[in-house]
Amino acid sequence: MKKLIVSVAVTLLCFTVSAQEEGYKFTDTQTVPVTSVKNQASSGTCWSFSGLAFLESEILAQGGPEVDLAEMWIVRNAYFERAVKYVRMHGKANCAAGGATHDVFNMIRTYGIVPEEVYPGLNYGTDLHKHAEMDAVIKSYVDAIVSNPNKSLTTAWQEGLNAILDAYLGKCPETFTYQGKEYTPQSFAASLGVDLDDYISITSFSHHPFYETFALEVPDNWAWGLSYNLPLDEFMKVCEATVEAGHPVLWASDVSEKGFAWNKGLAIVPEADTESMEGTELARWVALSQADKDRALYKFDKPGKEKVITQELRQDAFDRYETTDDHGMEIVGLAVDQAGNKYFKVKNSWGVGNHIYKGYFYASYPFVAYKTTNIMVNKNVLPKEVKKALGIK
Predict the structure, then answer these.
(1) Which CATH number characterizes residue 277's domain?
(2) Tens of pLDDT, residues 221-246
(3) Which string of DSSP letters, residue by residue, matches 244-279?
(4) pLDDT for 120-166, tens place per residue?
(5) Is residue 341 very low, low, confident or very high in pLDDT (cuts 50, 70, 90)?
(6) Is the dihedral of CA 240, 245, 246, 247 positive or negative?
(7) 58 with 379: CB under 8 angstroms?
(8) 149 belongs to a structural domain
(9) pLDDT in tens, 154-177
(10) Does pLDDT of 9 surpass 70?
(11) CB neighbours (10 Å) of residue 319?
């Protein structure tokens, strides 16, 4: 037993020394235009921040101006629509802060959009977003409506909901002035020069036919938006090809994995390289407890072997609720580490703070293949063979 403990200590010490000597070193090989990193703070609104970051990058990629769009405008209007559906569904639907990739586009189609300076959505006494109270109030309100105490819904309940949203986020302006010109939310949306119909959602799961569309079965897909379904290898090709064409990818993913290390600026799916171990080295590894194996694997000290992600492995994680719709982000580049492994560069919405990459991190190709729920991309830069397979013109 003592010899085993010494072996474990030596193994972990080697990982520590390696971390001091090496660490991960990334080289960006391709980047797309971006706006500044934002901070969603204490709000479950990553879907709005990532969706508008994606749209801001698309405007730049198409030669438009840099613009800072109002995340809370989208959140406010989506909350209203989500609550209405919740009541229509007798409370048998999702009514929480989360959303899906297509929600930003749906809200702009219906309500237009405004700049951040016009609608910051901080109407409740804080400098940063803090939505716990508002979320709880809205949920309690709509649950009271669903309980139907009058035995018939009144004509006032939607006005009451709007009053709550106005109190916390602010009233929606019908017109506003921006850079010396007067707009409505709809005319400002039109001025951005992007066609919202150019954007499609893509996923990769085998419980539905490939090359067809389906509504991804995750709680935040309250609007039942459709995604095209591609085999995993083609799905990954779309991610890479989109960035290579100079466009961003709107990325929805599970970030609850041990391999997601925000403080390290890294997301990986490590696996022990037992093939290269010999004799006593392999025996020592096999004898380790799972906790000690995890400590060794998740040191994030230097590039190492990662899992080979198959369609079956990805599907199994989704079927067991291990892959969930945790977080929305924007993929803005491609990179390699010092060992030549490939990564996507990701823009987050958790501010810059003392973060190692000032609000960005690097997600390995295996992590993206394994943990993505869906992406949204500009259909005009899809590989030709993918467009043909999906029937997109």
Answers:
(1) 3.90.70.10
(2) 999 999 999 999 999 999 999 999 99
(3) HTT--EEEEE---STTEEGGGTEE--B---GGG--H
(4) 999 999 999 999 999 999 999 999 999 999 999 999 999 999 999 99
(5) very high
(6) negative
(7) no
(8) yes
(9) 999 999 999 999 999 999 999 999
(10) no
(11) 12
Does residue 369 form part of some domain? yes
pLDDT at 16: 38
In contact, 286 and 7? CB cutoff 8 Å: no
What does the alpha-carbon distance between residue 85 and residue 69 come to, in Å, rounded to a whole number?
Answer: 26
**Helix (H) / strand (E) containing 331:** strand 327-337
Q: What CA–CA distance (Å, rounded) separates 383 from 387?
A: 6
Q: How far is residue 10 from each of residues 16, 204, 280, 300, measured CA to CA in Å?
A: 10, 42, 13, 17
Which residue did the predictor score with more confidence, 306 or 290? 306
Handedness of CA 41, 45, 49, 54 (dihedral sign): positive
Residue 87 inside a domain? The answer is yes
User: 276 lies in which domain range?
Assistant: 21-290+303-390
**Structural domains of the chain, count:** 1
Q: Tell me whether residue 15 is in a domain.
A: no
Residue the block writes with tokens 């609000």: 359
Closest of 153, 167, 45, 43 to residue 91, by C-alpha: 153
d(Cα 169, Cα 184) in Å, to the nearest integer? 19
